[in-house]
Amino acid sequence: MKTVEEIKAAIEAAVPGAAVEIVPNPSPSGQHSLRIAPVHAFAVAKFLRDDEDLKLDFLSNVTGVDWPDKEISEKVKVTRTVTKTVAGVEQAVEETVEETRKRVEPGCLEAVYHLFSVEKKHGPVIIRMRTVNRSDLVYMPSLTPVWRSAEFQEREVWDLYGIIFTGHPDLRRLLMWQGFKDHPMRRDYVEPDDFEYEPTAHDQVLARARAHRAAKQNAAAGQEGTGAGQ
Amino acid sequence: MAVDEQLKIELGKQGVFVTTIQDLYNWGRRNSVWPMQFGLACCAIEMIATTMARYDLARFGAEVFRPSPRQADMMIISGTVTKKMAPQVVRLYNQMAEPRYVIAMGACAISGGPFKQGYNVLKGIDRYIPVDVHIPGCPPRPEALIQAFMTLQKKIEAQPLTGEGRPRHLDAEAQGEFPVPHPGEHDLEPTSNPGVWTVPVIIQ
Predict the structure, then answer these.
(1) Given CB atoms, is A206 within the 8 Å cutoff of chain B?
(2) Does the distance separating the beta carbons of B200 and A175 come in below 8 Å?
(3) Tens digit of pLDDT for each residue in B12-59?
(4) First CA to last CA across chain B, in angstroms?
(5) How do the domains of chain B map onto residue ranges?
């Protein structure tokens, strides 16, 4: 099979404007993946499926990755003018100060597709796509028209991560029920507070169970207080 | 009123059989408990094994798995009850005719098991419907299910037909329908049925 570099070159030659980025995998398996822009995803997918050398006719797996917003603090040297009293005279002096600046790198949601070729007996070729952010611009083209097996797996990714696949024929939740609002596999998902009975709690569960009990006691105390007032 | 055992044996020697309606009635009931044919997860495989030749649940009169809740007397909750499935399980239970019994089979059915801290698994079906026998295990062996079934038979046998503790079908006041939880935006609503399940007190 072609190496990822060759595949990247082939894609860029076949699909004009497609910017393919190689995401290296440092593990012994060395399964490097190709990050493609969602705009060109459909054309790239079609090329990968139909190309004579690749013939990636089997989509084995679709999954999602949640990249949360990252807060990065960095030290920057800033030069600014400060008014100072030097030897009894007020002067404007330039001073270099080191400042810690914090910036938030916006997170995103990523979909990962693992492709194989049954005909050529090779694979996997891994392609990745990213959304703009993880709050409102969570759109991505669906690859179900190219590989039918993506249908349920994209539904699962929508259900658990909240990526909206445009062009999907039937984008409903797969594992959770209709009307469920959260996406449980996101890093910031908070499960409902049903820790009222934890007979063998430990670690995180113990902390949650204690918090639940404290909240319950506080609520009870508050109610008693109002009851006494009346 | 129970018959004196010694008197019963003496009368038996004379060719007279004496019993009570209650014994006769419960003897018939406990030996023809028909389970409902449904499985939820891997425990169902053990449940199927229990009904097959090696373990042979037919010895206890419970081999007739009914595909309709209207014809079933017992519900074996065999496996993980997800929050998506829980309303359907409660609805099926509501559709069963009295007298009806429930065996919660396996760690998931009794408490959520290894998925307890997951986002989609109910922490025990006894939060919504009354459970008669709980069996721990992951999954419980067929012997454990047979043990549970025999426990249920003993329970049926011991039920008086009148007064306190009589089976629900002889009690006009008994609750017949249990509220079906509604799948809400974040969790099932309500998260438990307080008439069936109250938070157990943890002694530390």
Answers:
(1) no
(2) no
(3) 999 998 888 998 999 999 999 999 998 999 999 999 999 999 999 999
(4) 43
(5) 34-152
